[in-house]
Every structure is written in structure tokens, then in C-alpha cells.
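Pilot study result, target chain (576 residues):
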Amino acid sequence: MGKYIVASAWPYSNFIPHLGTVLHLLSADVYARYLKLMGHDVVFVTGSDEHGTPIELEARKRGIKPKELTDQVHAYDVELFKKFEFDFSLYSRTESPIHKEFVREFFLNLQRRGYVFPQDEEMPYCPNDKMFLPDRFIEGTCPYCGYEHARGDQCDNCGRLLTPRDLINPRCAICGATPIWLKTTNYYIDLGKVQEKLLSWLQSSELQDSVKNYSIEWVKQGLKPRALTRDIEWGIQAPFEGAENKTIYVWFDALLGYVSATKEYLMSKGGDENSWKQWWFDPSTRSVYFIGKDNIPFHSIILPSLFMASGDPYVLPWRISATDYLLYEGRHFSKSRRVGVWIDEALEIAPADYWRWALIRMRPESGDVSFQWKEFYRIVNSELNDDIGNLAYRVLSFVKSRFDGVMPPATAPDTRDKETLEEATSLASKVIEHMDNVELKRASEFVLEVARLGNRYLNESAPWDLIKRDRERAGTVINVAASIVKTVAHLITPFMPSIAEDLWHQLGFTGSVMDAKWPENLGKPISGGSRIGEIHPLFRKLPEDFLNNIERIIEESRAKANSKRPPLLKDYGIAG
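Predicted structure:
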């Protein structure tokens, strides 16, 4: 079995994550749980991205210190992520002392190795706010695609990395004033020094073709030095001599969080300061990153460039699972425009496992996908209730009513029984195949196929009629159907862990379904003679008038969520 580092992009701590943001955390959690079920050693890390201009900008607009905001957001997010059943090894934060120290030491090493140098430059300066305007403090029109709300670091529309000088018709993001350009000194990292090495690695890497080809073309255009420091107050103080009033650019800061969080986690488990190297310096370790497509360059180009420049034998990305955008009813999620649903609001509408399954089913793996309430309704009522829940309840209630709660044995399975079990095993192998390829949505389709196979088999075999004339044959049919239910319990575990545990115990098993590793247990028929647990429906259908009343339901969920939010997060994201 192998070693895996599973990581998800760190959510910004300027507000509560929405469904589009939580999708990357969920995807990483599903994949990490799958790896554990397959018997692999896994470190699953991410955390709150607290530094940089988005946080400082939000804090300035509210008239508070950045850390006041991030302290409340981080604590609340940790609470919400527990409700979403994310099984992090560690959910850290960029305000962690271990992270700050790691980042400063890392870039001092790069400076010693000749990759960091100071450079005078002209930067936009707002005469009204009397401050320099790095990245998100400045907006304008993208020179590549014409998007009018591009930021000074990146265009959200086309994904191109930008500098403030690239913007057409730039303006201050705080007051809207036209900036002037003044001289300042910042520290740059010379990525061009590793360009050939990076290109060679990309060409031989196992990254998926879309990420690989995109990144290769990017690097072939030439890697220019990029500013490592910013003229802002909030962040990790730059460690270079003469840079006392400057902080590390948030993306360089947060990217190293994957390593520092691993270090922090292992130290919390009794390891020493170098235990993390047993993972990050081990060539057999595979690292997998779950991000949005707009973050590809940071993970496929900048992060490996940093690792190469360090001179240390870091493992480079094995997979970068970059999804397209999850939209909300055809529009981009937006806190300022009140477009979307935030995860605390979502939890007021339906249980976490419903959301976990639905979001994976809508995961944008090959193009942008729009979250639609009608699709959520269909997934919950059709896939969860009718396909999965109905199969489990029909089988287990039959065992309870006709066999006194004791699982009957499969005394004489016929050809149809054996072929059905073989087909279930074959479908389960398809789940594994697609999970190995980090195609989570595709894998979920085969989970449903197993449940649908069980329902077809049950309908066609009709044990409720068989038992009137052949109790033993009816018992065999129910045992086969129960074996398929057991397979479903295994397969839904990464996606819906609480529902899987519930079903596992209804089947009469003890312990955790997560402890029933797939290589030894997946597809193994259920034994006869064991007593099942207390049975009940796994899911509840959304009411028939759900879609007609969705606007009212959203408003009510927002009001309930808002009442539970910490003080600084109240009244944000509320419609109106």
C-alpha cells in the first residue's frame, strides 16, 4: 500500500464558503476516504487562507483588524466542516506559528540559493487611501479577454495571471479612484532559472492531459520573475533584510501551507520537526491536489518551481484534480451580489450527506455545471430515496417481517443469482477504476448502477411471491439482494459516511464501515444466520412542493443560519 498526501485549495477567510468553494474540500475528502478504504496511508491537509489582500480589503471595508475577521471565520468554518463530515488529518490556518516560520525559512533558503532578488518598480498608489494597491486592491479590464472586473493578480474570466500594470483602465478597489504610479522596492523570485527543469518534469509527469498540456504551453511562453513581496500590512512579514514593512504574497504563502500543515499535523502526533520529510521527500509518496481550474498555474507551475528552487527532493504533484466552475442557477456565486447558497444555509435545508452526494453528482469534471434546485430535488428523491434507500429498506424490512430479523442463507444460488453478484462486483470494480483516476462523479454513477441492479433483481425475483411456495428459495433471493445492499454500503462510504455507517449497522455489522477495507471485503457475500439491526429509512424525500417554495425555503434557511453566525459574519449573504 502507498503513501498519499491529499490537499485541497485553502478557502479564503473573508466569509463562509459557498457550495462552489466547499466542492473542492468535499472532493478531497471523498478521495482521501477512498484511499483509506483501499488500505493506503493518507495525510489529508488544508486550512484557512487568512493572509493577503482579499482579507485586508474585507477588513478595511468593515473597519476592523484582519485577524478579528479571520479568527471568527476560521473557528466557524471548522465547526461547519465537522458538520459536513470532512475527515481532515489537519485543518490548519496560515496564522499558525509553524506555518509562518516554515514560510520565512523556505524563502530565506531561496534567497541564499540566488533565486530571490530586490527590484525597484512602479506600483499603483491610491492618493485617496494613501496606500499601494497590490493585486486585489486594484481592478480593471483584462487585456486578454476584455473582462471588466479583472484583478491585479489574475482574471477570473480567462484565468490568466496578471500584474497591476497589465490592467486597462485600472481603479482602486476600495474607493474607485484612478491610481497614480510611484516607485517602491519589492523582492522577486526568478522562476526562469527552473524553467527547463520544470518543462522536462511536466512533459514526463502523470498529470491529466488537460492540466499537463495547458501548463506546458504556459511554460513554453517563458517564465518571468514574479513579485514575492507586497506593500501591505497583513500577512507573513518578509524575512529579507530591508523588507521590514513588506509581507509575502499570499499565493506563495498559501502554497507552502500544504507542507507546513503536514509538519504541524505530524508534530501534533508526536513526530519531530523533520517527520514531514518522510512524506514530502519520499519519492514513493503521491501528492494529489483538488482545486478550481483558475488555480491550475499556481499548482502546476509555481508550486513545483518553488520545490525545485529549494534544492530539496520534494515530491512533485502526481495529480491536480482541477474542476470547472460550479455555477448557481447559471450565474457565478457572489457574496456581494447575494448569488448562491452558503454552506451553513445549505445545512438548514438538508442533511450534510444529501449535499455531499448531490455536489459530487453535479461535480463539473468536463465543463462548467450549473447548480439547479430541480436537479438537487431529483437527486435526493430519485437517486437517494428511490434507488439506494428503497433497495435497502425493502430488503431489510423483508428480513425483519418474514425471517424474524435473521438473515437467511443463500442455500442454493442459481445461475441468475451468481451472475447478479458477479455483475455487482464488476460494477464495483468500475467505481474503483474511476476513483483511481480521480473521476469522482463518474464513479458515483456506477454506485447507482449497483443499487439499480439490486432493485431490478428484487423486482424480477419477487421474493414476496416466492415465500408463499418456496421459503428457502425466497431466502436465497433475499440473501443475494442483501449482499448487493452490503456492496452499496461499502461504495457509498466515501461519499456519504454517516448514511453508510447507518446502513452498515442496519445490516447487523458491528464496528465502523471505514474499518471494512475494500480489498478484503468489497463484493464479499453476506453470511446467513446473523441478526440485522434496527431498521428505518435511510433518507427522507423532499416535499412535493419543494421547488414551488424554494425562494421561501432559501430565505428561511438564511435567516436561521444568520442567527447562528459569529458577530462579524452576521447579515452578510442575506438576500435583500
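One observation from the pilot: The CA atoms of residues 167 and 179 lie 12 Å apart. A full batch analysis is planned for the follow-on phase.
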